[in-house]
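Table 4 source record.
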Amino acid sequence: MEAAAPEESVLSEGCHYGAYVILFLSGTNGNPNRLFLGCSNFKTSTSHCKYFKWLDEYVSSNVAHDPASNVEVLGDIVNLKRRIATLENMVAQRAVGNRGNIKCWGFFFFFLGVVVTTCLLVAGRF
């Protein structure tokens, strides 16, 4: 069997437009919860190509089937789990930061309402 492609070419797969592909979760009845790679513009209003590969088929065609490469794959999995955890933490921190913005806007509109109501009361129109 032929050796696997270098890590960089395996992990930086591009779509037909040259954009990075991203991972999606199938929601169809025929393939529920099956992961696939698709154009990063898929499911957006931006035009996208028809790039599509099932993740399990892609991995099995790009990974060498020898024990030595399995160690490398396991190392890659550990690194990817770390990267995912880091990204999840970044998303969680942004969500917390956005709550602060929502509170600021809420306070702003409350204060604006108080000012408008006061002005209307002073003008005798309320």
